Amino acid sequence: MTRTPLDLGAYALPGRIQDPRPGLAQAVAGEALGLGSIWVAERWEKKEIAATLGALTQRTERVKLVAGMTHFGTRHPIVLAGIGVWLISRTEVGSGRPEGLGMAVLSGVGFAGFYLCAHQAGNASALWIASCSRAGSLLVTAAIVLFGRHLRALPAPVLGIALTAGILDVAGTVVFIRASQIGRLDDAVVISSLYPAITVLLARIFLHEHFSRARTIGMVAALAAVPMIAG
Asked: Which of 111, 98, 226 shows the shortest CA–CA distance to 172?
């Protein structure tokens, strides 16, 4: 006669424990008693919930293992967003060592400087702040093109795409500046940095590009983090 699991659960490793290893025996005992679930919470530097649940799976067979309270410092939605962006932008297996890492770091420093400068502008008009920043970008880009002798004619279709990209870029900048003015700068930066997920999704819709399972998971994670951060 098989035993039906009870609709009762037990909380393993309660209190201010110093050693999580007794939780293994507690989970085994709970399963032997016929409990339906074993709950595990998290404590900073003492109980890491993923590692604890992973260990319990090796000592139990039937009982359900459930995650309880987690620590906000390691399970914040910003962490989920970062993991999502990393999965989307990471180099695929077999594609070799990624190039341009130094330039990417410099780019990140430049974006960080822009975010801070835009925030320091206070409650000035978002349109004027965006216009001034793009005027500076135009001067720097023009200098690089002229002194580097990169000036050449562009086909009309390419020019049209470039103008459209510029309009979208300015619009995104204005919206970001306004978001940082009426809300928190860190939230605006994190949420706006999730644009790779939208880029991948648009590439799938309009360019019919196929992406790996890792990028699919990353896109879902990044999009799921947005309402959690905003809420």
From this structure: 111
Judge contact between 2 and 20, C-beta under 8 A: no
Look at residues 56, 74, 92 and tell me which one is the last residue of a structural domain. Answer: 74
Which of 36, 51, 74 delimits the end of a domain? 74
- If one counts every other C-beta atom within 10 angstroms of the C-beta of residue 39, the result is 17
Say if pTM beats, i.e. exceeds, 0.85: no
pLDDT (tens digit per residue) in 113-163: 888 888 788 888 888 888 888 888 888 888 888 888 777 777 888 888 888
Paired tokens of 29: 């005992």
Residues 130, 115: contact at Cβ < 8 Å?
no
Which SS3 state, helix, strand or coil, does residue 163 take?
helix
SS3 91: coil
Most distant CA pair in the chain, distance: 86
Q: Which residues does the chain have with pLDDT short of 50?
A: 1
